Amino acid sequence: MVIPSLYTREDQMLIERWMRSVPAYPERDDLADANRVAEIALYSVQCRLPQGLSIKEDGSATLGRKTWQNPVGLRNKLVFPIHLLEVDRDDSQLDIKCPEACYATLLPGYNAYVITISQDSAESYGYFDVAISCFQAVDEKNSIAADASLILREWWQFQHKELRKSHWNRLLKQGLIDAGSALRLRNEVWSAVENADGILS
After folding, report:
1. Which distant-in-sequence residues (6+ apart) come within 8 Å of 64 by Cβ?
2. pLDDT for 17 beyond 90
3. Most CB atoms closer than 10 Å: which of 74, 97, 114, 122?
4. Whole-prediction pTM value?
C-alpha cells in the first residue's frame, strides 16, 4: 500500500511508470523517469554523492552537481539509502577519478528496493543520477546485497556488451557490497580483464 504522505500524486505515477519499464539503461531507454526516481530515492544523501568540479579560465571553480528539493518532508525521516559501493570508471589513462556510487533505497509503500547509480557528471548518462532497476524488499542485509549485486552485474554486462565500455579500475569505497564481492562481480563480467588488481584506495 502506497503511503500518500510520502509521495505526491505525480511521484506515485512516476514511480509506477518507471517500475513497469525497468531495467533502464543508457543509449537504450529514455532515462528521464529513471532520473526522477533516483532523486526521490537519494534526496537525503545528496551531499555524499560524487561531485564534479570544473575550473573556468578566470580561475573560478564551479560545482557540477545540482541539488534538488524534496516536496514531502516526511520522506526525509523514512527513506534511507544504503551505500553499496563506489567505483572509479576512469578509462582515459590520465589517472582522473570518475567516481560512480551505487545505492539501494527502500521505497516504503512499494515494498521495493531501488538501485541507483550516481556520477560526478551528467556526461555518461545524460543525468547525474539514474535508477536502473528494483527488487522486492527483503529484511536481511545479506539478501539485499545479493539482490543488488545481481542488478549491478546486469548493469555492467549491458555496459560491456552493448556499449563496449571497459571495466572499472578501482574500488573507491566499499559499502554493503564488500571489496571481494565487488571484484568477483567485475571479473565475472569482464572475464578477459588483464591486471584485475582492483585496489581499494
Report:
1. 51, 52, 53, 54, 120, 121, 122, 128
2. yes
3. 114
4. 0.87
